[in-house]
Amino acid sequence: MPTKPAGSPEKAPEKPAKAPAAKPAGAKAATPKSPVAKSPASKSPARRREPGQRDLFQLDSPLTGEIRGERSLMAFPFFALAKSAWMKPLAYHQGPISIEVRPSANGVATIYDKEIVLYIASLMAAKLEAGEQVEQDFVFTAHDLFSVTGSNHSARSYQRLSEALERLQGTQIKTNIEAGGEGEEGFFSWLSEARLHYSKTRTGEKRLKAVKVRLCDWLYRAILRDRQVLDYAAAYFQLGPIERRIYEVARATGPDTPDAEPLEVDLATFRLQIGYQNPLANFRAALKQIAGTDIIPDYDLALIEGEAPADAGEARGRGRKAAPVSVVITRRALRLSEADPDADTNSSDDRPESHESPAAIDSPAS
Q1: Ranges of Low complexity compositional bias (predicted)?
Q2: Computed over its alpha carbons, how large is the radius of gyration of the chain?
Q3: Separation between Cα atoms, residue 219 and residue 121, nearest integer Å
Q4: Could you say which of 95, 184, 194, 304 is the most buried, measured as most Cβ atoms within 10 Å of its Cβ?
Q5: Read out DSSP for 41-101?
């Protein structure tokens, strides 16, 4: 109890309360009034939520729309074509476009880590289409992410998720590609924040409740302002690394209809755009095998050889120059099997092996 200031007057003792007067016989006794409960609003003014503030587990999942991606991320090689850690920097300098990617201690973010970025971009695009306010923070469940990308729900999948988030947050990217009408100098990460929120059972076992991430400014602006977002084929997640990149390049820069002009590019340039790190001869062998399988969703790929030019080197006995090779991509007419939305797809965390030659998986160049 607070003490009274020195010299403050004491209050006179309170008079004892008078006993209530007796009521005349037959008079109704007054019903005692209970104190009126004040509403929370009457006690104190409602606490206003600051802009950008949200409940921790106000989930943005499940994803109800299609998987979609930003066009620049489809057209250019921002991710390593590897299943294991890729520890070397990546670079792409072609025409006016410049991209540098530096690894973290855990390596460069891979084409499989990109699944998380696609999932977040899809959540954001769906909110924008619904007219909702979109911020850079996203909260989702691993269960929904795995269901969308076709991964199983094993303990190993959760471990891979943790490792992928670390690479996405640690990988450093620098590019002169503008996003939302603005350019940036310096490096950024795909995720400026990435956290796994757990609860514990009585036995101490961890249970993952939600994943919370913060999307980088560059990609956030690109999706929010440019609206260059394209949908992905459902079969994308069953493809190997090179097949994924071929599909993305075709989707972002290739023909939109079967009767449109095909995309034709020389083999060396296409190798750079795909982001293949091994020698050109290996890339050519990989493309031949992929073209034979007809595995790229919605697109057909062919290798066209030109005539080898004769030059003075032939006269000097050094042999002929290799014939130039072009990659031609055409839009495939829709097939009945591809039009069936109820087609059965297997869900597995084991990445596809059947459509990949030994050259199709990048390894550090010797």
Answers
A1: 1-10, 18-44
A2: 32
A3: 9
A4: 194
A5: HHHSPPPPPPTT---TT---PSP-S--EEEHHHHHS--SB--SS---S-EEEEETTEEEEE
* Sequence letter at residue 86: W
Indicate the domain borders of the chain.
53-232, 238-366
Distance between CA 142 and CA 145 in Å, rounded? 5
Helix (H), strand (E), coil (C) string for 123-186: HHHHHHHCCCCCCCEEEECHHHHHHHHCCCCCHHHHHHHHHHHHHHHHCEEEECCCECCECCCC
User: How is residue 335 written in tokens?
Assistant: 């097939």
Which among 126, 154, 130, 125 is positioned nearest to 142, based on CA atoms? 154
Taking alpha carbons only, the member of 116, 106, 220 closest to residue 172 is 106
Beta carbons of 145 and 116 less than 8 angstroms apart: yes
Tens-place pLDDT, residues 278-306:
999 999 999 999 997 889 999 999 999 88
- In one letter, which amino acid is 105? A
- Reduced to 3 states (helix: H, G, I; strand: E, B; else coil), residue 194 is strand
- The pLDDT tens digits of the residues spanning 259-281 come to 999 999 999 999 999 999 999 99
Helices 114-129 & 155-170 angle (0-180, nearest 10)? 80
Q: Are 104 and 171 in contact (CB under 8 A)?
A: yes
Q: Which two tokens stand for residue 362?
A: 């990048």
